[in-house]
């Protein structure tokens, strides 16, 4: 399972970017209303920057900031034992943000990420062989910072999304089509109809442009 205690299965920077785009596209097809989607991606976040996100509507979130330096990823699970709200005034758990490279200073200061609400943080500079996180003394718990469940969607396995779609949207999505979107095959009208007969490719044009995903 992907978590801050074991980041080996988290895809590299480019693969994670593509995966986040795929997740955002699939959610856009299955749920036309943006506020009810779990996954989003903005390929035009800022000049030379992109941003992938996940929000569960219950106060938990994850943001991935793709910059020239690499990728900075923060997550917040409000019920995790490492929630900042255990302290008054609230305080991010020691070690979570203490050793973030200076190259990600802009990410740390980004208001949209609400860094004061953070239970875990991982990063990877371009050229790094692996993802990193801080030197943290974790409390005794199965998933102390919530990374185990928030990062679980990013294992790169199409079956993971198919299960999520069944649970979240009550949709039985064909695994072969999830694989196709994970592989960034250009969307066709037939693919969209098979995933959700109530939407059409033309209705996704704005979403696809924002996400940066190809279509025929």
> Per the principal axes of the C-alpha atoms, what is the gross shape?
globular
Based on secondary structure, the structural category is alpha+beta
Low-confidence runs of at least 5 consecutive residues: none
Computed CA radius of gyration, to the nearest angstrom: 17 Å
Strand content: 15-25%
Mean pLDDT: 95
Total count of strands: 6
For the report, how would you describe the main beta sheet?
A: 6 strands, antiparallel
Strand line-up across the major sheet: 1-2-3-4-5-6
Helix content: 25-40%
Question: Can you put this structure into words, describing what you see?
Answer:
The chain has 216 residues and is an alpha+beta fold. The protein is built from seven helices and six strands, in the order H-E-E-E-E-H-E-E-H-H-H-H-H. It is globular, with a radius of gyration of 17 Å. It starts with 12 loop residues before the first helix and ends in a 5-residue tail after the last helix. The mean pLDDT is 95.
């Amino acid at each position: 399972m992907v978590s801050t205690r074991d980041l080996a299965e988290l895809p590299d920077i480019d693969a994670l970017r593509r995966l986040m785009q795929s997740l955002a596209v699939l959610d856009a097809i299955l749920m036309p209303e943006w506020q009810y989607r779990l996954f989003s991606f903005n390929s035009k976040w800022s000049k030379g920057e992109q941003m992938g996100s996940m929000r569960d509507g219950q106060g938990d979130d994850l943001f991935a900031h793709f910059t020239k330096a690499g990728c900075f990823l923060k997550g917040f699970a409000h019920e995790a034992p490492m929630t900042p709200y255990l302290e008054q005034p609230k305080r991010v758990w020691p070690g979570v943000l203490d050793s973030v490279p200076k190259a990600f200073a802009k990410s740390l200061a980004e208001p949209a990420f609400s860094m004061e609400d953070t239970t875990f943080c991982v990063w990877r500079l371009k050229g790094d062989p692996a993802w990193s996180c801080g030197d943290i003394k974790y409390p005794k718990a199965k998933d102390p910072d919530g990374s185990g469940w928030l990062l679980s969607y990013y294992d790169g396995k199409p079956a993971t999304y198919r299960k999520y779609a069944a649970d979240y949207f009550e949709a039985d999505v064909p695994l072969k089509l999830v694989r196709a979107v994970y592989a960034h095959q250009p969307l066709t009208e037939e693919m969209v109809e098979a995933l959700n007969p109530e939407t059409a490719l033309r209705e996704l044009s704005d979403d696809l442009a924002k996400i940066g995903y190809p279509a025929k």
